[in-house]
Amino acid sequence: MDIETVSPLWDGELCSVRFDRETGAWFVIAVHSTRLGPASGGTRAMVYPSVGDAVADATRLATAMTTKMAVAGLPMGGGKSVIALPAPRAELGDERWRRILRIHAANLDELGGTYTTGPDIGTSSADMDVLRETTRFAFGGSAATGGPGSGAPATALGVFTAVRAAVAEAGLGDGGVAGLRLLVQGLGAVGARVAELAAEAGAELLVADLDPQRCAAAAARGARVVPAAEVTRTRCDVLLPCATGGLIDARVARTLPCAVVAGSANNQLADSDRSGHDAPDHEGAALVLARRGIIYAPDFVANAGGAVHIVGREVLGWTEDQVTRRTLEIGATLRKVFADARAYGITTEQADHALAARRLADAA
Ligand code: NAD
Ligand code: PPY
């Protein structure tokens, strides 16, 4: 994607782009909105097809963070960082990676707290520890250094809570998942934990990951492995996208063989108009899912547990128990979103946006 195509369509406050010749890495920080407070959101480090794609990802994800913070009732704005790596992390070597983190820390300092970050795909609590050696603006450091750790366990709890609420909305039971077939796509920090919670609750578990070792570990605990390319064609009650975003576009939505979609991945719907990057006048995936009676738990709501953990522990001084209580409230928020969608004949994503817009307007 060309950078010229992305930026004029974005309504965010700031997007900084920096290149480091020595490591070959591009650094993007997108601040979508600071209306509710300083912007916050994780740092994603991975290989992108082009710098334009990295900017598109950062701006789209930052926009989603604004909605997420607003709907979760957190006093923070939306932002996200993307580090476009010249090669996969495993091939970079520790010295190059350390230099990349040093530069990212300097970029965070440059923004002076307008934006704070934490772990996301490709970065860990240990990486936050390195950032914290030179900046105050990195959250989610490891317990060994006195930090609260990554938000992945809280995200998983929130996603599982969302699954239960969505299953009840779909009329598949009273909110329990026992006997239901759940397909988890992505067995990373979040997906693996959600899979555990689902198995403990008696679900029939299907899993898919590009990493055969992660699949083998889940299979050893009784899950059935599905080829990664087959997740949107495999019959299940609940599909849980817990890998990267963009799994479901309108075409995929037309044939998706499930009753519920509820997972952790950010921006699960590929062609949604919420990013401002796509034409808002075509029938997007959210509408196709709604027309087919498939219950979609908007990702901004379902995956907010990580933000609740990071912001709660680092900014608001909450205990673990308070974080857990707030994360479990994701169930009630989703029930309201479902009820609004039903009452007004709109998609669950539109209902969620309306909720965020009301909170942002109240703050203005
Ligand atoms: P992770 O990097 O630990 O795990 C991602 C997993 O997905 C990996 O095992 C990877 O091999 C797998 N994967 C990638 N592409 C795949 C594909 N096409 N098919 C099957 N598997 C694939 O990431 P994570 O922290 O578990 O986060 C997962 C998703 O949830 C991401 O989209 C992230 O942005 C989102 N999220 C995470 C948090 C958090 O607290 N970690 C919070 C909110 C949202
Ligand atoms: C996300 O939910 O996608 C996040 O990035 C969570 C988060 C929130 C605030 C700081 C770091 C990570």
Quick structural summary:
The protein has 364 residues and is of the alpha/beta class. It folds into 2 domains: 3-63 and 77-145, Rossmann fold (3-Layer(aba) Sandwich); 152-304 and 312-317 and 329-363, 3-Layer(aba) Sandwich (Rossmann fold), CATH 3.40.50.720.
Number of strands: 12
Percent of residues in beta strands? 5-15%
* Multimerization status: single chain
Distance between the termini: 34 Å
- Whole-angstrom Rg: 19 Å
The helical percent reads: 40-55%
CATH class of the largest domain: Alpha Beta
Q: What would the average pLDDT be, to the nearest integer?
A: 94
Low-pLDDT parts are 273-282
| Helix and strand pattern | HEEEEHEHHEHHEHEHEEHEHEHHHHH
Number of domain units: 2
Q: Main sheet?
A: 6 strands, mixed
CATH superfamily of the largest domain: NAD(P)-binding Rossmann-like Domain
Based on the coordinates given, report the CATH architecture of the largest domain: 3-Layer(aba) Sandwich
Keywords, separated by commas or semicolons:
2 domains, Rossmann fold, binds nicotinamide-adenine-dinucleotide, 364 residues, single chain, binds 3-phenylpyruvic acid, alpha/beta, 14% strand
Could you explain the architecture of this structure?
By secondary structure, the chain is an alpha/beta fold. It has helices at 3-6, 51-71, 89-92, 94-111, 125-132, 152-169, 189-200, 212-220, 250-253, 285-291, 299-302, 305-314, 320-328, 330-344, 348-363; strands spanning 14-20, 25-33, 39-40, 43-46, 77-84, 115-116, 181-185, 204-208, 224-225, 238-241, 260-261, 295-296. Helix content is 44%, strand content 14%. Strands 1, 2, 3, 4, 5 and 6 form a 6-stranded mixed β-sheet that branches. The chain has a 6-stranded parallel β-sheet with strand order 9-8-7-10-11-12, with helices on both faces. α4 packs across α5 and α14 (330-344) packs across α15. The longest helix has 21 residues, at 51-71. The radius of gyration is 19 Å and the shape is globular. The model is unreliable at 273-282 (pLDDT under 50). 3-phenylpyruvic acid is lined by residues 40-42, 68, 117-118, 120, 139, 151, 266, 303, 306-307, 310-311.
